Amino acid sequence: MQTKTADGLVRLTDTAVIMEYGPQAMPVKGEASPRVVLYENILEIDYQAPKVFSQGHLRLILRKGQTKVDPMIDTYASRLTDKKEAAALYEALGQKVAGVEYVAPPPSNEPEQVDRKISAAEVSHAFKNVLPASATFQDLSMVGRELQKQAGRGLLPPKVWPVADCEAQVDTGAAISARVTATRVVAGALTFGSTGALVGAIAKKDRTKVYLQVTTPDEVILKEVRGLDESKARQFANKINNAAATHRARPTAQDAGALIKAATAITPPPPPPVSVPAGWYPQGDVQRYWDGNAWTDHTAPLAPQ
Which residue in 179, 149, 147, 131 sits closest to 244, CA to CA? Predict the structure, then answer.
């Protein structure tokens, strides 16, 4: 099960809950992402359902004890926005936790969270982190790691692509026609103002006009750019390309499973790549704690399969 949250997303696996924090989360959460918590280590679930004008939250209360902090900076909490999805997540997680038996692990030197208020600098940093990653042009929007296209007229559904797999540029119709063949432009992908979808390549009479070209994994989208909108289109294209380069270079929380696998090692284990976040990872017949830079001496039993 996977649920999007205001901070990123929450995934439930057979043995653990994984809280992944994206660029829209506070920096302290991003540094701790992903949080991988075995169900047997959860003592209680602190849940508050989202309301019309306020977000809810899902907070994990661990058996080892922790200080309660604001859900904005609590690295064991995700902020919820969709009431129906939040309720389904809370119920599913409760069933997972109730279905496991707790086995006390050895003491851990993982630092406890400190009870404190959110500083103005942290709020400022969070906004600076989110705003550059958000942009819109006509019916296209880039939010965080996703490029989204609104639903079209008729029965055309909305579409979403990973921004890391997209590319954008602004050019004349003549230059674009030289690069894009008609077979790559699918029906509904080429739009011309308010006249709707056109099928095929750009007509010769339109080759002098300027277009925004966005290449996604399954189609090429062309948007006519008029007058003063050219500057906005170029800024939108730059943001897509910059975000794509950033997300391709930095492994995301969605790669947690691959990172955990990569961290599984023979004895003595080689250190994981520096991009692997701090956390518990399988190593032989136990789990060992990786502090983000080196293996520690702290181990715990493997989760039951």
Answer: 147
pLDDT recorded at residue 178: 65
Ramachandran bin of 182, using left for φ above 0, alpha for ψ from -120 to 50, beta for the remaining angles: alpha
Where the chain has pLDDT below 50, the residues are 181-201, 204-205, 252-257, 259-268
Contact 80, 56 (CB under 8 A): yes
Question: In DSSP terms, which residues pair with 304 in a beta bridge?
Answer: none
Give CA–CA dist 279/58, Å, rounded: 20
CB 33 within 8 A of CB 8: yes
**Minimal CA–CA distance to 284: which of 305, 304, 263?**
263
**CA separation for the pair 4, 207 (Å, rounded):** 42
Query: In terms of Cα–Cα distance, which of 181, 182, 68 is closest to 115?
Result: 68
What is the pTM (predicted TM-score) of this model?
Answer: 0.39
What pLDDT shows up at residue 194? 29
Question: What's phi and psi for 278, nearest 5 deg?
Answer: -60, 145
Correct CATH for 2-114+252-301 of 2.40.50.100, 1.10.3720.10, 2.60.40.1180, 2.30.29.30: 2.30.29.30
Q: Are 197 and 187 in contact (CB under 8 A)?
A: yes
Q: Can you say whether the dihedral through the CA atoms of 282, 288, 292, 295 is positive or negative? A: negative
